[in-house]
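[SOLVED] Predicted holo structure with pyridoxal-5'-phosphate

Edit: marking solved, answer below. Original request kept for reference. I posted the sequence and ligand SMILES and asked for the 3D complex as structure tokens.
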Amino acid sequence: MKNKIDTIKKTIKKTAVECNRDPLLIHLVAASKTMSKEKVIHAIDAGAAILGESYINEAREKTDALKAYNVSWHFIGHLQSNKAKYAVGLFDLIHSVDSMKLVKEIDKQAKKKKIIQEILIQVNISNEVTKSGIDLTSSTNFFKEAALFKNVCIKGLMTMPPFFDDSEKCRPFFKALNKLKDTINSKNIPNITLTELSMGMTNDYKIAIQEGATYIRIGTAIFGQRK
Ligand SMILES: *Cc1c(COP(=O)(O)O)cnc(C)c1O
């Protein structure tokens, strides 16, 4: 596993340098969903500093069992509003906030815990009916409304492009997410400055880096195929 993580880190660095980006702004999230605690510990020992979990019950158990490890836990899966109370405060960053209802619930839970919860807004950039995320057309209004919730801090955007055999086909979707970030920032909405882009997985992370990713979420290339 050390080899795999080292290779990914080298690729991040090389890709960033080639497109004149600062490699230090690109963070590797090891997507550890369904992986055993033992495997997660291996990954941590091999240099994974951020773990990305997708299921609340599994994540609560793992984070509790591994609390002695000095790592950051992110949530990258679909979050139901009724589970927000468990996610708030447990994760340093929730990547997958895909509705106003969820923003509102996270804000409420964060207020209770007297914290500011950092989140990303998931965007359905490909407009697929099967994908979660806010749609592009209503995004400005979404951010104007979300900005009013004081116990969430919106750091940026996240997306999952459709699956393609040819990863090059993901590029337009990554470009579109980056452009949306600039568009929203240009509206000067009080409280909203987007700096982070969570995009890119095992098959397409190089392209995502070229298009501005600051978080790449990698499972298979670290842990192998999920069962
Ligand atoms: C599982 C998962 C990943 C990792 O995908 P791989 O193709 O295995 O690298 C990335 N993002 C999300 C949201 C995931 O659920």
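OP edit: Residues 31, 33, 54, 76-77, 160, 201-202, 217-221 surround pyridoxal-5'-phosphate (CB under 6 Å). Thanks to everyone who chimed in.
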